[in-house]
Predict the structure.
Amino acid sequence: MPDAAHAAACVAVRHYRPAAGAIQRLDAALINQEMRHTSVYFFGRFARLRLDGRLDVDLSLLRFKAPEAMRAEWDHYEQIDVVPGGGCLSAAEPGGLSSLHVMRAGRTLSARRPGQAAWIGP
C-alpha cells in the first residue's frame, strides 16, 4: 500500500513535469524558477516552494482517537488544529534539519522534523 513517501514523490513529479514542459528544455535553473512561481497541490492543499527549497504548506495537528471513536480500521486520527505554513518552519540548520516551533494557547509545541511526533502533514 502506498505511504506518505510515495505520495510525496508523486506530488513532486506532478509539479516538476508542467514546469519542465513550460520551459521546453532541460535547464535546471529555469525549471526551478518556474516551479517556485507555480503553486503546489499537496495532499488537498495548495503550497509553495520557498527560496531555500522547502515546501511551505499548512500542517495538521492530529491526535489519536479513542478506540470506540474509530469507525473503520484506518480511522485513527482526529484533526485538532491547522497550523499555517507561512513562517512555522525555520531556515535550514547546519545539520540539514529544521526545527518546528509553533505557539498555541501560550505553550510551544515543537518537533525536530515536520511529520514527527504529533505534527503530521496534511
